[in-house]
Every structure is written in C-alpha cells, then in structure tokens.
Amino acid sequence: MTVVDRGTAHWQKLDADHHWHPFTNTKALNQKGARVIVRGEGVYLWDSEGNRILDGMAGLWCVNLGYGRTELAEAAAAQFATLPFYNTFFQTTHTPAVELAHLIASVTPGDLNHVFFASSGSEAVDTALRMARAYWVVAGKPSKTWVIGRKNAYHGSTLAGASLSGMSGMWKYGAPLVPDIAHIAQPYWYGEADAAETDPEAFGLARARLLEAKILELGAENVAAFIGEPIQGAGGVIVPPASYWPEIERICRKYDVLLIADEVICGFGRTGSWFGSQTFGITPDIMTMAKGLSSGYLPISAVAVGNRVADELINGGGEFTHGFTYSGHPVSAAVAKRTIEILRDEKIIERVHDDIGPYFQERLRTLEDHPLVGKVDGVGLIAGIALVASKSPKRFFEKGDEVGLICRDHCFAEGLVMRAVGSRMVCAPPLIISRDEVDELVRLARRCFDLTL
Ligand code: PLP
C-alpha cells in the first residue's frame, strides 16, 4: 500500500489528529490540511497529488546535494549492517566518527582541529556555549560568563539556542532562559540604516562597534564569547557589509572574547566557500555546524574547536562533563563523511563560487525591477528578497508578515518552495541546481510576486 493509494485526505486526517508540527500554527494547519510530500529527486519534490515542486529551500537549508543521492543511502546501509550504533563515551571510538572528525578538521579554517559531535544545530550551539564558559573557568577567569549574540539571530530551540537567538518569538514564554546572555543590533543595512547612513560599509563598522560598547558596558573581564551566523539565515538572509566581520574579529581579539561562528546554515558550501567564515575572512575560535554536514540525510551536528580552547579544556580541564548518546552516531557520521567526499570530489563548492552562485545572484537581481521587490541580497546560493510597499521613498509594509505569508503560499501553490521571514522571501536551493533550474525558480518567483501584488 503506497502513500498515494490511501489518498491525501487519509494522511491529512491522521496528521491533524496526532502530529504536532514544529514552528506551526497547528490549529490553522489542521483546518486546511498539510501538504503531503512523498518523494524527492535532484532539486524537486513531489506531493501526494502528483504535483512537482522546485525546492528553493533545500529542505530547511540543508539538502545541499539534492534529493536521491544513492551514494548516501549506500553509505548508511553499509554502516547499518556493520555497526548501527555504538557510543563514543567511556574509552571507545569507532572509525566513522574518527574519519569524519579528521575530514572536518581538514576543511575548516585556521586550527579548528578538535571536533565534538551532537545531533542537531541547537545541540551544537548548546555545546559551544558550555565549552566557552568551561574554557574560562579552566583558564582561571571564571567571571567571564556573558555571551553576546545579536537581535534577529537564530541559534536554535533548546534553552541555550533560544536564549542566544535574538528573535522576540523565541522569548515568547519568558527569556532569555539562560543567564548572562546579551544581544546587540544586527548589521541589516537596507532595513535598519537611518537616512544619514548611506554607506553600507560605514554602517557595518558602526554595527560591529556595538559589540565593543556592549563589552565595555558588561566589563571585558565578564565576557566569555560573541556568537553570530556569518549570514543570518532564519532572520531573513541578512548579509552583513564586508566591513562587519573583520571588525567583530578585531574587537573579540582586543578584549580576549572568544569568537563563535554559527555555521549551521552557512557551512558546507552555501556561500561559495566551505564555511561562511572563509567568505567573510575570519577565523573563529569555535564553529558550530549541522544541516549541510550530512546534506540533511541524517541528523548530525558538530562543534569544531581551535587549539587554544581545546588544549586548555582537554589538557587542563579533566573530563568535559557534556555529551549526547548520539554524539558521533556511526551511521550519521558515515553519511556525513560521504557527503563531504562528494562535495570535495565533485568540486561542488568551487562551482557555487565560480559559476552557479554568481549566476543565481545575477538572475535573482533581475527581480529588482518588480514593483514589490525593494532589494535582493545574497552570496553563493543563499538570498533574501525584501518585499516593500514602496521603493522610493522606501516604505516597508505595515503588516509585512501577512504579505510574506501570502507570497509564500502563492509560491507553494505554483510549485516553488520559498520561505517568508516577515516581508523577506528567502531562498537557498540545493547546491547542485542547474542554470535551467535557476531560470525556472526566478520565473516562478516573478509570477508569485505578480500574484501577491
Ligand atoms: N543555528 C542556526 C544558525 C540555525 O539556522 C539553526 C536552524 O535553522 C540552528 C542553529 C538550530 O539547528 P537545529 O534546528 O538543527 O537544532
């Protein structure tokens, strides 16, 4: 009995009766019924009614190799048959975890030579936060506890992830839930610069220097780390001016504050380099990664740690009392290893950098002549499209969320997955997308903007 044999209504009813969806107004969804996705191939998905959908979001920023890569299924099957599970606690290891840690160390920048595994991006962020605080305890500066993040950042749904996130929705039930967390404003020039701030680079510097002001306010002796996504993804694809990250790094070094790059979305080729940190020219002390690590085929995340922090914690700290049953899960690790090999051997990231990324960005920018589109931002295969009520003078929609959702729903009905973040439409297709598929994506997007007008 296939999904299709039972009929869409059967699955929608069961879904409504029993399945509580994450980040969803489940009551509203249950009234209309969730779309049942049954299959994927390349950049396309198919639903239970046989409709084809171009996945402009690579699942949830993760299916970088596209759907249907049999090599990943084979890697999983072989590992399932050999050793489906063993933990890496208590004096044991296994080859998939070792090989993956070695591969990650070889593609990360600087001396991020030590890799700690978890299952989700949120767990990786929690791990990074605990590592940063543990580091300062062991280094003899236990007052350094504060971690500074940014407004409109997203770092996950666990207690630490939600607290470090700077979105009001994440604090709906009281927050931040973890103590000693502060936020500074984001580097969103198009959306937040005032009329006098006409130079994006000057704006980028000014926003970076808010970190210095916050460190001085809290006292450098109390600040453990700064955390940021190279490009804020879930916040609407906020691409910082080029001046921003080098200044953030300079400030972190000046005040001896650890720099944590949350690469959960930007990692593994999304911006045209292995990591967003490389695209923006910085070398973090700690890096979190997930999603593209296994192309989303199985849950796995990692925290790559530089020699300074790792040496202190590993050699001076005794046992690091942290970890998860599934840290370095052998099947997930085998699939992640194969993913990295494919990215490397097929030169997929070079293609994003040299060819398909620039093509995608150029084609998307043709949408800027549309009356609804204020500005397209992006690099590599990640982009955000600001929908505006008026371009000149620039005026944002009063109910931007509603416009975004209307546009998103038109896209979905027309056969394109794009997400709405407020009035920004965001797009991050699989890295293997072809030029023809980019053309189709842009054509569909234009049609949906027309329908939203
Ligand atoms: N960090 C960033 C930058 C993310 O974008 C996300 C998820 O989108 C997370 C952390 C949390 O990852 P997960 O949903 O796997 O817990």
From TrEMBL:
Keywords: Aminotransferase, Pyridoxal phosphate, Transferase. PROSITE patterns: AA_TRANSFER_CLASS_3. It is an enzyme of class 2 (transferase). The keyword Transferase applies. GO terms for cellular component: cytosol. Coiled coil: none annotated. Its EC number is 2.6.1.-. Its cofactor is pyridoxal 5'-phosphate. The keyword Transferase applies. GO terms for molecular function: pyridoxal phosphate binding; transaminase activity. It comes from the Bacteria. Belongs to the class-III pyridoxal-phosphate-dependent aminotransferase family. This is Aminotransferase.
